[in-house]
Amino acid sequence: MVRPYVRTGGRLAPSRPELRLETLVTTPNSEVNTAGMRVEERTVINVCRQGGALAISEIAAHLGYAPTLVKILVSGLADSGHVNATTTLPDHNLLERVLNGLRRAL
């Protein structure tokens, strides 16, 4: 078993606390130079390249990593410009309409 802080290079918390499980992660259109990156970071980039925009929770599921570990990795990759991380909250009115529709359906 490998301890999570080993996989993150000693980082214990994400540098971007706003990242959530539903935060979408994408790679830039240009090729990303992965020289000198940790294996885990390259793996996150490769999963995003193959899957397109993936949520942090999806990346964690694909890799079998804890979501917090993926948040730390994505934070570092976003800080260095290797990935884009976008957290958009859904429109409150849309959520209310969906909830009302579900209530009517039941």
Short description:
The chain has helices at 4-7, 39-51, 56-63, 67-79, 92-105; strands at residues 24-26, 54-55, 84-86. The protein is built from five helices and three strands.
Number of helices: 5
Radius of gyration: 16 Å
Number of strands: 3
Gap from first CA to last CA:
46 Å
Fraction of residues in helices? 40-55%
Average pLDDT number:
85
Give, in order, the helices and strands.
HEHEHHEH
Q: Please state the overall shape, judged from the principal axes of the Cα atoms.
A: elongated
Describe the structure.
This protein has 106 residues and is mainly α. The protein is built from 5 helices and 3 strands; from the N terminus they run αβαβααβα. It has helices at residues 4-7, 39-51, 56-63, 67-79, 92-105, and strands at residues 24-26, 54-55, 84-86. A 3-stranded antiparallel beta sheet has the order 2-1-3. Helix 3 packs across helix 4. The termini are far apart. The model has no long low-confidence stretch (mean pLDDT 85).
